[in-house]
Amino acid sequence: MSRALGETDDLRQVAGAKHATLGAALKRFPELRDYFTMGFVRNPWERYFSWHSMVLRRRDATLDGTYDAAHYARNDFWQRIARDFPDFESFVMEGTRRVRRLGVPQIDYLTTPDRRADFIGRTECLTDDLARGLTLAGIPLPANLEQSNAGTGADYRTHYTPAMRDRVAEVSARDIEEFGYSFSS
């Protein structure tokens, strides 16, 4: 019988929690080295737009009392982004140069020097790719699949200047090459 991490182990024990790297997960749970692993990537341009929008939404919701202020206060990263890069252009153009975390390609989350996730899906086709990944892992697909990060609903492309588009292409070159992303896909 297949056992998935999370059935008996607490993912919050892994540095980075739901955005943990494969390396961090294997460091915390070395017994999982031979387990089937999978992760998901996102169009880099959509990823950066969503990331910045999420930080600002949480900041604003904290200010108006609709988000957990204590949780926001514990997240130095969110506070730094909201303070130092309050507009999307500065987030892309300056943030990706000054904040190491913003320049980490998604493929780095899913690989170690001697291991790669067994299946890498795309958020753009989450349901289909999750079904494929779970089938490969021998795990049945849940009856009700909820997508907890549905994005902003906005067309990310309308928020980019040509220079911003090029900067994300530069920072995300490995992801673009690895997963075949383009600005319009």
Structure description:
It is a single chain. By secondary structure, the protein is mostly helical. The relative contact order is 0.17. The chain has one domain. It is built from nine helices and four strands; from the N terminus they run H-E-H-H-H-H-H-E-E-E-H-H-H. Strand 2 and strand 3 form a beta hairpin. The mean pLDDT is 87. The strands form two sheets. The protein has a two-stranded parallel ribbon with strand order 1-4. It has a two-stranded antiparallel sheet with strand order 2-3.
Strand and helix layout:
Elements (H helix, E strand, L loop, with lengths): L21 H7 L9 E4 L2 H20 L5 H6 L1 H9 L3 H11 L7 H4 L1 E2 L2 E2 L2 E4 L3 H12 L24 H10 L1 H7 L6
Parallel strand pairs: 1-4
Antiparallel strand pairs: 2-3
Helix pairs in contact: 2-4, 5-8
